[in-house]
Amino acid sequence: MDGYTDEPAALGVPPYIAPLPRYIAGAAADAGASFAGYVTIDQLRGWAGRREDGAMRRERREARRAARGGRGRRGGAPRRHETGPGPGRLMPPRGRWDVVVLVAGAVVPGNYLRGRPASGRELAEVATNAEGATTVLAGAAARWGWTSGAPAGEDVRRAFDHVATADGDAFVHDLVAGDRAPRHRLRTAVEWARWPVLGASVVARHPDFPRPLIAEVETYRGCVRHAFGGCSFCTTVRDAAPRFRTPRAVAREVRALAAAGVVAFRLGGQSCIYSYRAKGVGKEEAPTPDVAAVRELLEGVRAAAPGLEVLHVDNANPAVIAEHPREAEEVTRLLVRHCTSGNVVALGLESADGAVREANRLNATPEQALAAIRLIGRIGGERGPTGLPWLLPGINLLAGLHGETEETFERDMEFLRQVLAEGLVVRRTNIRQVAPVCGAFDTRRHHGEFRAFKERAREEFDRPMLMRLVPYGTVLRRVWTELHDGGTTFGRQVGSYPLLVGVPTKLELGRAVDVAVVSWGPRSVTGVPYPLDLDTTPMSVLAAVPGIGRKRAARIVLGRPVRDVAHLRELLDEPAAADALAPLVRP
Questions:
Q1: Burial level of 129, CB count in 10 A (0-12/13-18/19+)?
Q2: Cis ω before 14 (30° cut-off from 0)
Q3: What single DSSP character describes residue 245?
């Protein structure tokens, strides 16, 4: 059961599917399991109180047939299938299972358009209701517990037979293979190459399959700054010394996922894509990028999935880019050449305050971050087929760190102002408070100042940046419609850190539409379907165009059919209003 993970170097909330559930399915198969099912927490919520549908009955029959030809149950209480939830109960995973594994842990929770990570209460409820099965808690919730404001970790853990505090896939493998007291261990390099391939097929059971599903694919674990302590707040650096997957292993996983039907991929799970198999890891805090290794990685992925529609990456260390500009430029060109447009590399600045940087051993200085933003924008700033640039940086800022003062937020604001003043383009600014997972942080001391800074940054930086990124009339291709809120349809392009688009009418959900941007908020844009057909477009959509409004939209509707732009000018009382509509209409 996928309760969704959201970690510094791995996303797993829809439309993403994280690596760990796939690894667990592969590990179980490698240990001799006859069948591995997959279900999300949202599906369990939706199933509660509903009748079992035909598809699930077929899956149960498939599971029973596989079980009859498999290795059989390895002891324990008899299995029992729950035919329906009792009053107020969350539906447990359907079928008759030997082992039920719950993967969860939003270490860096955000605001999600769809999907909601499992709460501790829900995890405990499913574990309790999975009668007759051995239950295992895996993922960040097992390794790190919960952040403040969530249920007490120990209360949840007691509901499970096992809590896998290392790699959940390795634990499940040993459990299924017959070890009554599995060790809490890390997967080996051989297992890391084998299990992602064996477990790839479970993606077909994800509700977002095949679109807009994005498969997160790991390139390495750990942080290249591990030997030097790394950032004070980060779980990634505490994982272990960096362990890199080979380009061949990554390509084999991508090939298996593509064969299963996946068309969108993100190379995540790394603290810095520029540091993949870098030179000097463990000897230098900012190791030298290995351009040949990154080239082999990206070329291998493209060859493994020649029909892919999306290939994006994740994090980058600004210090690595700034300290090795020649190699970083070559890696950036490789990312532009092999990945799809709309790609984002999130830069971990965290704070522009020097005192905070020293107290928390942060990645980079503001000067290094600016150098990285300039380099990435110079090479990746050209607009691609999706309507967005090929590659842009993002900025991560973190509040509540050691050494923070009221002046810290002014330092951060000064940094953002400089980015604007230089005419640079940033796709995304992630401003949040530190999660007290790896230690105690006083997030309440300057909470008021943090909230004021965040509001100020949204209005003074994010909104002007969005206007610079997607000017009026910019056409965003293949926006996937996901949610209705009143009379508005919200959607996003499939990709990494996608831009939220609101369309002021109800569109059919679950399909791709082209949208032209007409206005901007701090964190989203308003768009209209492109091209506009003035004879069929709802009045609410016409009214959303700046300079049109409801009265002029009504004139257009009453004057239909609109013959041409000259006729449009006749219907409207100002030429400027017709000029605003003209770029949006059908050519």
A1: buried
A2: no
A3: P
Bridge partners of 40? 2
The answer to whether 259 touches 196, Cβ cutoff 8 Å, is: no
Whether 302 has a pLDDT exceeding 90, the answer reads yes
As given in the structure block, the two tokens for residue 304 are: 């493994």
List residues bridging with 493 in a β-sheet.
479
Gap between the Cα atoms of 275 and 348, Å rounded: 14
pTM above 0.85, yes or no: yes
Q: Are 305 and 342 in contact (CB under 8 A)?
A: no
Angle at 253 between CA 252 and CA 257, to 5 degrees: 120
Instruction: Evaluate whether 437 touches 236 at the Cβ level (below 8 Å).
Output: no
Q: Is the pLDDT of residue 331 over 90?
A: yes
E strands, 181-262, are: 214-218, 220-221, 243-244
Backbone angles phi, psi at 399, to 5 degrees: -105, 160
Position 180 scores a pLDDT of 85
- pLDDT tens, residue by residue, 519-558: 999 999 999 999 999 999 999 999 999 999 999 999 999 9
Q: Which residue has the tokens 């990028």?
A: 289
Q: How do 264-268 and 524-529 pair as beta strands? A: unpaired
Q: Beta 310-313 vs 264-268: how paired, if at all? A: parallel
Question: What sections of 130-162 are H helices per DSSP?
Answer: 140-144, 153-157
The residue behind tokens 């209003």 is 577
Residues linked to residue 515 through DSSP beta bridges, in sequence order? 476, 529
Alpha-helical regions (H) of 264-400: 291-304, 318-323, 325-338, 354-360, 366-380
Q: What is the DSSP letter of 444?
A: S
Residues linked to residue 288 through DSSP beta bridges, in sequence order: 279
How many other C-beta atoms lie within 10 A of the C-beta of residue 513?
19
